[in-house]
Structures are given as structure tokens and as C-alpha cells.
Amino acid sequence: MTGQLLRSSFGAAAAAYAEHRPDYTQAAVRWALEVAPGRRVLDLGAGTGKLSATLLAVGVDVVAVEPDPAMLTELRRALPTVRALPGSAEAIPLPDASVDAVLAGNALHWFDMAVAGPEITRVLAPGGVLAGLWNVMDDRVDWVADLERVSGSAAIGPRDTLSAWRTATADLLGPVARLGASQQAEFPHAQRRTADSLVATLATRAGMLVMPDPDREAVLGRIRTFLGSRPETAEGEFALPMLTGVLRARRQ
């Protein structure tokens, strides 16, 4: 299964992505930006604007770039005050040294860093920050660890759990010249879910979107059965234990 196929899978589920994917905690965004030289921020691979909304909330000047037309439409609908442009990490429609930080929410792993790395450093001002953010499930919690086993890697992959995200993302910035040493940190987060809405959230994962329908329904059926069997998740709303993980580095 190619990365291009996975990358291109989200547009067909743009509305569901906008409804069900979690936002990003402000503490994580502030840490990502604390060493940036200014407040001009590019949300790269912005999707439907989940990260852009948090950037607006912390008071920075946001421009969003997203390659998928359906996702871009959702972003513009949800955040009409954000400048939102078609483009990609490999072809950023911004001038040289025009932003103080480039942030990517659950997107950095999709970039072709051999091409995207020079593009990102081109648009970054000297001392600017590149940061990837991932919302990860806290699999130190027993029922979350059991959910991971039941769901399989198409629904909950190595970048989706606390126990694995650091290893899975540690080398992502290695190919990018002109960046200093990277740092990682996690920040507590949670999302109010029901069993049905958590199933809907997991159905928006790239691996699930490209599955044949019968296979996808079988996986989602197992997840529904599991959630219905656990006292933590069987009835009503619950807090899905999460963290926002951040990987950041500065342009030299």
C-alpha cells in the first residue's frame, strides 16, 4: 500500500474528519512555538483546520496550506478568517523566509522530506521552528491498550499511541539540512467520545479508508463489540485518554 494512496484517502472523508478528529491542546502548540522568533505560523498539510483553530486560539498569525480540495473546502468553511491556500509540503506557495514556524498536525509523516525539507527551510525565517504534532492515545490505560490490540494497525498505528510515537517519529527530521537537534515532548489531552463516535473517529484513519468495504466493516464491528463490552465505554460519554506529542527543531 503506497504512501500516495494513503495520503490521498482523506478527501473522500473530509466532513467526517472535521467532525470526529480531535483538536490539539494549546499547551502543546505553545511549546512548539516557544523558541520561534515571531508569530507568523504556517499550518502545513492543514486538513480541515484542526490545528489552525488551536493556533488562532493562542493568538498567532496563521496561514494554512492543504493539497486536498475537499479538505481545503472544509477548512475554509470552518475557519473563514484563516488564509487557506492550495499547495503541499513539497511545493509551498509562500515566499522565502516568510514564516517563523511551520507546524504540521498529524501530517509530517506523509511528507516526502527529501523534497519537503528544503521547501520548509526555504519559507522559514532564520531561527524558525519546524514542529510536527500527533494526537496519541494513552495506552498506559488498560482499556486503551486492549482497544489497540483489538483494532489492529490500520486503525491504531505506531504514531497513535504513547508507547510508540517517539520511536516512530524520532527520525522524521533527520533528512532535513539546516535544522538543529530535534526535541520531543507530550502534553495531556482528552476527547469526549461515545462508543459510536470513537468508532467513527477510527474509521477516518488512512489505513481504514483504503480498506475494502467488507474488511473495514469487520474491523469496525470488532471495535464496536469491544467498546460495548467495557464498563468504561459501554454507555454514554467518556473521556478518551490522550496526549499531544510534539517533535520540534530550529532552523540554523
Estimate the mean pLDDT confidence.
93
Largest sheet: 7 strands, mixed
Distance between the termini: 36 Å
Radius of gyration: 18 Å
Number of strands: 7
Give the overall shape: globular
Low-pLDDT windows of residues: 5-12
Strand content: 15-25%
- H/E element sequence: HHHEHEHEEHEHHEHHHE
Number of helical stretches of at least 4 residues: 11
- Considering DSSP H and I runs of 4 or more, what fraction of the residues is helical? 25-40%
- What is the topology, as strand order, of the major beta sheet? 3-2-1-4-5-7-6
Look at the helices and sheets and give the structural class. Answer: alpha/beta
Protein model, in words:
This protein has 252 residues and is α/β, with parallel strands linked by helices. It has eleven helices and seven strands. A seven-stranded mixed sheet has the order 3-2-1-4-5-7-6, with helices on both faces. Strand 1 (40-44), helix 4 (50-57) and strand 2 form a beta-alpha-beta unit. Mean pLDDT is 93; it is low at 5-12.
